[in-house]
Amino acid sequence: MYRPWASAFEAFRDYVEKELGPRSSRRYSIDRINNDKGYVPGNLRWATPEEQNRNRQGTKLYPLAGEFHSLGEWAEIANIRYDTVKSRVVTYDWPLDDALGTTPGFGRCSLKDRRRWTSTEAYQSYLKREKLVVG
Description:
Strand order of the largest sheet: 1-2
Order of helices and strands: HHEEHEEHHHH
Radius of gyration: 19 Å
Number of strands: 4
Number of helices: 7
Number of domains: 2
Helix content: 40-55%
Strand content: 5-15%
Mean pLDDT: 83
Distance between the termini: 45 Å
Largest sheet: 2 strands, antiparallel
């Protein structure tokens, strides 16, 4: 922990008030942005329990289209239940783009029958929202 904060809680509180501002709801608590660094200036943020779980050192990030996200984040982006994405990728060893681009309830099926993630509306809106494409 940053020495001035360790010796005086008021210094920590003042930093949080000035740099992070008030927390937007009771769901938020202080989180370290980079877990390899301690509680130091510039490494803190307000985060939800879900954001904090994804920020753990053991969280696996999955690449797709030049982006890296946890399965939970990819599930949110694709608007598919996390359990569905996890079982497809982890249990059934589907490629991530197929796991995200296949209509829920499709079940285990052949690769040729799966919609490709990159052709879905969810993916196209994600690209536009993140300003990764012009249009």
